[in-house]
Design goal:
By secondary structure, the chain is of the alpha+beta class. It is built from 3 helices and 4 strands. It has a 4-stranded antiparallel β-sheet, with helices on both faces.
Length: 121
């Protein structure tokens, strides 16, 4: 069987190297969360921030207990790489359950890239 390429057939561009783009932006972006355009799509990159202290969470927990308002009980955010790992895991878990969530395109301990969920522009 002889297969030939039809020059008029549409070609599909190679998928962007999201991991390389993530590493480049993590090293240079000035803010922890920023939108970027890669090819023809908008993506968001979240960089790990400084770890958070527990003081504010403790104060909020005491206030919630005093007021008997469980909805005010804080969910501690450790910040840093632990927060990045938690957010990536939660986004992937939501998507696996069929819940509309941004697609995680690449992740590292210092940040992750996700696809823009809305319309660009």
């Amino acid at each position: 069987m002889n297969l030939t390429m039809d020059a008029s057939a549409p070609t599909h561009p190679a998928a962007p190297d999201y991991a390389a783009f993530l590493q480049q932006q993590l090293a240079t972006q000035p803010h922890n969360v920023m939108a970027h355009v890669l090819g023809h799509e908008q993506i968001w990159i979240k960089r790990a921030g400084a770890p958070h202290g527990t003081g504010r969470y403790s104060a909020m927990a005491v206030l919630a207990a005093l007021l008997r308002l469980d909805t005010l009980r804080p969910v501690p955010n450790p910040g840093g790489p632990a927060a990045i790992a938690t957010e990536v895991q939660r986004l992937r878990d939501l998507a696996a359950r069929g819940i509309r969530a941004p697609v995680v395109l690449a992740a590292s301990t210092q940040g992750f890239a996700m696809r823009h969920l809305g319309h660009t522009g």
